[in-house]
Write the structure tokens for this entry.
Amino acid sequence: MSDQSDQALDPEDRKLITLARSARARNGVPEGAAVRDETGRTYVAGSVELASLKLSALRTAVATAVASGAKSLEAGAVVTEAELIPAEDLSAVHDLAGQATTVLLAGPDGDVRATVASG
């Protein structure tokens, strides 16, 4: 895990954080996430908490990408108050994207706290 300067953030990665923040705020959920596939399409989701189904925002975004036909992922972002991205969430990204894909961890204010490799 490494810190990521906000000034050094690629505009496409900044877009992922903006989309993740929007999903979190719009749906009133603890987490928002966005992923970008190999074609540049983005998939956005919030965390899901039902009596019979609980999914993090990142796993929901990955599932949405897969269900929409994505073959791989270029990047991802999670907006949350949590300090870490759970290993299970990174595994979902890794399953579709491989080790080289990074996931940005940002706070609710959108400030990037860390960049984490999916592998």
